[in-house]
Structures are given as structure tokens and as C-alpha cells.
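Priority: low. Protein: SusC/RagA family TonB-linked outer membrane protein. Input follows.
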Amino acid sequence: MLKQITKTYSKAILMLLCALLYTLYGLAQQTERKGRVTDASTGSSLGGVTVSVKGKTASTQTAADGSFSIPAEQGATLLFTYVGYTEKELSVGAGTTLNVTLNPAENVLDELVVVGYGSQKRSDITGSVASVPKDRLSKLPVNNVMQAIQGAVANVTISQSSSIPGDSPSALVRGINSMSAGTGPYVVVDGIPLSKTDGSINDINPNDIESVEILKDPSAVAIYGVNGSNGVILITTKRGNTGKPTIKYSGYGGVEEAAHILEPASPEELLNRYAEYARITNTSLYNGGPVRNQFEFDNYKNGVTTDWLDAVMQTGVIQNHNIGLSGGSENARYFVSTDYLNQKGILRGYNYKRYSFRANTDFDATKYLTVGTSAFVVAHNRDGGRANLLQAAAMSPYARMYNDDGTLTQFPMYSEQLWANPLLPTTLNPERREFNISLNGYAEVDFGQILPALNGLKYKFNGGYSFVPKRINEYEGESAYNFAGLGRITNQESQTYTIENILTYNRDFGLHHIDFTGLYAAKSKYYQEAVATGEVFPNDALGWGNLGGASTQKVSSYADLYRSISQMGRINYGYDSRYMLTLTVRRDGASVFGDNHKYGMFPSAAVAWNIHNESFMSSTKDVVSNLKLRVSYGVSGNEGIGIYQALSLMNSNPFAMNGLSNAAIRYRTRMGSDDLRWEKTAGFNTGVDFGLWNNRLNGSIDFYNTNTQDMLLLQNLPRLTGFVDVWSNLGKVENSGLDITLNSKNITKENFTWATTVVFSRNWNKIVDVYGDGKDDLGNRWFIGEPLGVIYDYTKVGIWQEEEIANGVNKGWDEQAEAGAVKLADLSGDGIINNDDRSILGQTAPKWTGGITNTFTYKDFSLNVFINTVQGAMRNNPQIGAAADELGRRSAPAEIGYWTPENKSNEWRSLSNRSNIYGYGFPTNASFTRLKDVTFSYNLPKDVASRIGVGGVTVYASGRNLYTWTNWIGWDPEARDITRGSTNDNINYPMVRSYIFGVNLTF
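Result:
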């Protein structure tokens, strides 16, 4: 046996040496060809142009200055391709230096676009597929790719509700389609799903991304079946090219500050507030005044004040460093990158570090077999105790920060104990660690290289494994006034396996084009968590490191398993590049549903007509360079409920009996359902793509309409059933809208260009039915005929004045009204204010959004300015609501006033605890327009760069969230603002303004 193994290995080593010698011989016959690619009309350098040897797999890309280097034999043909430019072929002569010019393409839509399980020429696409502009991916210093997408793609809403370092923005594609199930888009990276793995879009380093496509319409998303109802985001990362190794360094650093400070009341204003509150409530102030509490009195007497916002805030600092290495031989290509991000937040204790590594490889094992990897590892560190913004904003300027011994006070406004010291959490040092280890690989067989008759037939195997562990270690002891001590360790992890078998066939038969894709895929995700808690420790020395030393210990755990199976078939047919047809059907099965409906079928169809290719359009080709009409219809699904929700589960509870420990088994309060099935969204889309005057003006217009039925809703059950609720398929929602994208080249001169991109989105959303009985659900604010997410409240018409109360104006209107109270409209006309006087005042989702990007270039200088707007959204304003509801026990923003007999405001209520007895939420218009990004860059001339030993140099300065036009009173109309009473008020964080300076180097 040993001899046989030795013999086998000897043969393998010999074959490997022969292959290596053959490769070296082939490379020796080739000469390194160098050159530069420029725009034929402007003479400007073109970076990112793909240069390949025709008939070979060797390829590379031009640097920022247009330079390239690639090995090629004399007589070989080089192929130059670039988005928006006409493809060019060039025969290699004896010389080694080439100067190449590319002409702008007559049809900018003829580049390849990723569409899911493959790619298509944009001119052949029948669905609505949007590509994120490459300039936003390569030239914006962002921590998360969603920040680059924001406002740049029509009807893709990116909400930055949290600016906490390490938090990801939320995304919404074409509005909300579901009442209770998930609404976020499905994210796929290099063909392997990132969604539903417990991974985050924040795991993907923006520097590694080559392109981002967003599938929006039913035909485009149906290929992902149950995952497609909320849109699909396809991310493709960079890969290696043939040629000498290229090293790229990208680094930036900068500072951050709050985009807007919600200034608190001044010391003098707060004293007036205290005096007014004492007058209204007929109570005395501490020790005769003018403050309310002991600690405040001491500081007031000594003339000591504290700026609490300044105490918890700091100048944020951010830095990012990325090194990418790419290259390869004709048969082996690689892209390797490593990235380090360090962000110190603008609130004390909010720190974030990210370390990531990626290795993408492609190997031509034989002429018919290609294998490769798309693997990455990322580590997130969010350690540290965090200051509390809500507590700081509530503090009196006379509150005491420190005790006499230098420790932080527990209650700075003692004897007031409602508001704790906002800096107390910074004395703690919890660990928050998260990792994502994703090892993905593929193998592709080209049967046409084995048997010419099978040309166009390929099989691809995708395999993915994702391991996502998370850990939170925390301990609260004497420094936070927990003298008993409390420690907790939380461990979570998920392991996800993805297997995809993809068969494709792509052939042209004369004027006919056929493209077939078949899929069989399986997915499995195992999740588990364990929580260990200890209370009452002898001391704080070991913290969470010795939970066994606690007097009281508690352990809990949980685990679940999710599995799915999918089959899909898609046929694309095209005739003479004029008429296109796409037919898709997908079947999904998932373990989350009842035994009777685990599988769902999701079909779609789409047609497109390239009108500009018709003979009758030949006379207009100088004006109409592209005109395509698209129509599609399809069905997609949504499984957005938790695992095991369709089952009748049981709990085990310990109890003592006869001196023994026993376990009792009982049903949980949620009933199972064997008939629970998928939500289904059926949609129609019609669109037109156009280009005028050689695509100097181009864009697309889409109108869509979707109807979601069999919605996943929790239905309440009568108590006599023994259960509280059950998941059911009820309700219908209709969603429609308009997408417009316009691109124009306003000025194109040799040394100066000006280009503009405008996007506009309008969305209409309404509930058609809830529970099948034609009735509204008041508790969830679901009203038939109205949008999902509405503001349902009273109508404020002013503030009750003393004269009105004295004259009895409130009689037969609001008998309980007093001067200074909110005056609400009696809409029902019954002479009282009650629930019948509430109405729908607005919607929480914006009615329309838009963005405009202007890019100016002058020689080697470039200026990019991006403005986005969100209009028609309404939110309850917690700052206004809390300003008087805390019964005079807190500070308030200076912008928010209050009614007094002397200041007869008709806008602000009094400080009385009866000024808002009906619980009016103070809904406010949350619309805004924001100067989102401004970036100024400079490309160092090639001759200068070469003299300092580099291939290319770009330096830039960038500003983000520079100014916001809004009437919103608060930190920001987008920012999360959670009031007291929530356990999550420590996640309040202001919108951030950034000033960044960076450099990109190519070696």
C-alpha cells in the first residue's frame, strides 16, 4: 500500500513539474506589451478598461492613468472593452508600446450586466435592472456600500436611521409589500446569498466591490423566487487579471461631528421653566429656589454649570487603510485584499474596528475546467461602555457630575432619580465581538471545449459555507452603582451551507439567440445561542470572567435549524437584437411552513423590443441612439417569519413535588398551522430605456404595480381555544410607483466635461384587505385603502387660551380643557374629544424621493456634488412630546417653547401634566433635502507619478452630510430618537457630518 501511494504521488509531482515547465516556456515566448488607453473625443485617460488577448484567458485592466501591461505574442489580437465605449481590437506588432483610443459607444447599454445566475448584455435585458454608478463605488470613501447606493438608484430607499459606528443602513426596494414579514432586499455576493446567513452588508468591504446591480421588477426578481419579493441586490467583487502583479493602496482619514446639535435650554431658560412648573403645580422649589433639587442647588449657589452634551460628545476620528494585490498568469488569476477600519464615534465609548481579508482566485485547471474561490474573513469590534445621549440631553446644567471623591454621581440631579448620569456606562468595558468566515468556491465545466457540438453548454457548481459567531461579555459593578454585581456572557453562532448546481446553454443560430439557465440548490442554516448570567459577586475583580463565583446563576440556551430546496429554469430568447423574451419559473421549499404547503411556485414572463434596431428607425439614428420598450409580469414570494412558527411548540417548566424536582410540559400560547404558506407578490412592470444624440442624454422610465396576498399575519384567537394567536395567511396590499433615471453629458470638451445624473421615485401603497372581513385593524394602524405605516392621531388646531376657557368656548367641545392645553379638533362633532376624532394625518414612508449628481472635470481635476431629497414623510416627534410630559423634571431643547399666561403661545403647550391628556403624538413633517456628498479629486500626471516610482496617484477631499434643509425639530429627520421608557434609549446617536482626506496609489 505504501509503495502504491508513493508511486501515485511521484506521478503527480512529475506531472506538476511538466505543467510548470510548459507554462514557463509559454510565458517565455510572450513579450510584455505596455500602453495607454484614452478617450478618442476628449483625450482623457480611461481607467478600468479591460484589456484581453483574443482567444486566450489572459486579461488585465488599465490603471487610473489609462496605462496597462499584458503579455502577448507578436501577431496576437488585443481586445479593449469598457462600459459606454465601442469595443476595439488591435493586432500586436513588433513594438511593445501601444497608444489606444476608444470611441464612446453608440449604445451604452451593450455591456454585460449581472442579472442573477449569470449575465446578459444590457440591450438584451427584459426586466428592470439598475446598476449603481461605478464612480460612486470607487470614488466615495464610505464604510458600507449602502451609503454609496443612497439616492443614486431610483426607488431604492436607503435610510440612515443610525450613525452609530458599525451600524448598517436599512434598504427598501420599491416600497413595502408586507405587513408583518420581512421587507429588506435579498443580498447576494458573488452568487452566494449573504442574506439569511446572519451576515451583514457591513461584512463586505466597499473597496473589494466591482459592481452592484439591483433587480427590481417581477421578471428580474422571480429568478430568486421566495427571496425576491422585496428586490434583490447583486454584489460582484473584484477578481484578478492576467499580467504582472498590481498593488493598490487606498487610504483615508478624517474627522466627524454632529451634523446638527439640538441645543438644550440655557441655564437661565431652565430656571424660568422650573419657576413656571412650580407655579402651575403649586409646589415649592428646593430650599426656596430657583432650582428643584439638592445637587442643582449646590452648583447654582457656587455658580457651577455643566454642558452635558459637550461632556458626552467628542470629535469623531475615522481612518481606513486598504491594500489590494491582483495579477496572474494566463491560467491562474488572483485578487487579494486586506482592510482596516477604525472609527471613534462622536459620542464617548462608541468605537468600532473592522478587520477584513478577501481572496478571490480563478484557475484554468484544463481548457474545459475552471475553479475558483470567493472567500473572506471579517472581524468586528464594538467594545466599550457607551455614553447615553438621551440622559445627557435631559440633564440640568446645574446637575452634579462628580462626587467629592472624584467618582461619577449616580443621579446628577439628586434627589431626582429619574435621570441617571449619562457617563456611568463609560466606566464599564463590555466586549462586543462579531465575525464572519465565508468560504465560497466554484467549479465550471465548459462542455464546448470537450466536444464542439456542445459549444455554449456549461455546468457550474457553487458551494458556500458561512460561519458567523458573535459574543457579548458584560459586567456591571460598583462603578455603575450596582453593588451586588451583574455579569452576563452571550454566545451566538450560525453555520450556513449553500449548494448550487447551475446548467447554462448560450448559443446563436443566425439571427436567433437562446440562453437557458437551470438551477438546483439547497441551503441549510443552523443557529444556536447560550446565555449565562451571574448576580451577587464577592467583588468586581474578575467581572464576567468568573460567573461561577456569583451567588445566583442562570443559564439558558436555544437552537434552530432552517432548510430550503430550490429549482429554477429560465429561458431568454432574442431575435435579431430586436425582440427579446424571458420565461422563468422557480419552485422553492422551506422548512418554516406547514406540512401541507412547504413548496411554492413562482413564474414570470417578460418581453422587450429594441425599437431603435428596426429599419424604419434608420433615418433617426443620429437622434435616437437607443429606444427599448419592456413589459414584464411575475410572481415572487416571502417567507419572512421565524423558524418553527408554524408548529405547535411546548415549554418545559421545573416544579417541586414530594421533595423532588420535576418537569411539566405544556403548550406555548401560539397555535401551529399545517396550512401556513408563502406570501405571494404578483407584479406588472412596463418600462422604456432611451438614448438620444449618441446617448448624450439617456435613461429609463418604469411604472410598476404589485399585489401581495396570503400575507403572513398574527391572528388573535379566543382564549377558550387555549392559545393566544396563530400565524395565518390573510390580507392584501397593493403597491405601485414610478422610477425615472436620467443621465446627461452637458458639456464635453477636450479639457472640461460636465455630466449630470437625476433619479426620481414615486410610490403609492395601500392596504386592500386585512382579515378578510373588510374591517380595519386599529391597534396595528392598518386601514383599508390607506398606506402601510400611517400617522393616525388627533388634529391639533392650536392651544387653549385663558380667555377661551373663561368664555366657555371649550363647552360642548372639550370639557376637560384648561388654559395651555393642546386644542384638538372635534372631527366627529359630538361635543367631546374621544377616539372618534382621530384621523389619518400622513404616512411614515416618503411619498417621493430624488437625487441629483453633478460631475465636473477639468484636466486632471474632478468635482462631484450629490444632493438627495426625501419628501412627504411624517413622524411623531418625541422631542416635542417629551418636552412637557416629564413634569418639569428635565431639560428640553431650546427650540421647543411652552405656554404661559404671559407668553400666550398658540403652538407650544404648558408644562402642566394635563396639557396633553389625550396622548397626542405631535406628528411632524419629516421631509428634508440634504447636500449628501461633495468630493474633489486630483489625478497626478503620469510622468510625475512615474518619476516618484508609482503607476498612478489620486488625492481627494470629501465631505458627507454637509447641510440639511428641513423643518424638523430634533437631531435629524432620519435619525433614530427613542424616548425614556425604552431599554434601547442608549442607541440614540446624532447624524454625523464627515470631512475626509484620502489617497489612492497604484504600483
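The longest strand covers residues 486-509. The CA atoms of residues 310 and 392 lie 9 Å apart.
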